[in-house]
Amino acid sequence: MFKLFSRYFSIGILNTSLHWIVFLLLVVSLDISQMIANLLAFSVAATFSFFANSKWTFKSDVTLFRYFSFVIFMGTMAVTLGYIADKLNLPALVTLMTFSMISLFLGFIYSNFFVFRDKK
Fold it and tell me: Of 3, 66, 117, 118, which has the most beta carbons under 10 Å away?
């Protein structure tokens, strides 16, 4: 389990960097709400994360069902947190840090036990 999490974490560093860059560009440069920015940034980063984790971490086949189950679960978290951040008027950095931590752990659990469960 530790080896899987280590691989997931490594991809998560790249994924998080990509998410943060897109999010900040949208919020700072285009003045898009945190909810929408977090969803769009997540979509870019999650697509990268899904394919990288599918092949490298879980050594699993890529299927549309797996992709959509991963993206819908993680996207729901992104939108929910963005919505809460907008309502609480939280700084963008707080939103990014909070989502990064939550998605790392919940994303790993969901990926390991649901999305890629039969290919370990």
Answer: 66
Task: Give me the count of residues in the chain.
Answer: 120
Helix 64-88 × helix 92-110 angle, to 10°: 150
* Other Cβ atoms closer than 10 A to 23: 27
How many angstroms separate the CA atoms of 21 and 28, rounded? Answer: 10
pLDDT by residue (tens digit) across 60-101?
Answer: 999 999 999 999 998 898 889 888 998 999 998 898 889 888
- How far is the C-alpha of 72 from the C-alpha of 75, rounded, in Å? 5
Q: SS3 of 90, please? A: coil
35: closest CA among 70, 67, 75, 68? 75
Predicted TM-score of the model (pTM): 0.79
Cα separations in angstroms, 23 against 39, 67, 81, 91, 93: 9, 21, 13, 12, 10
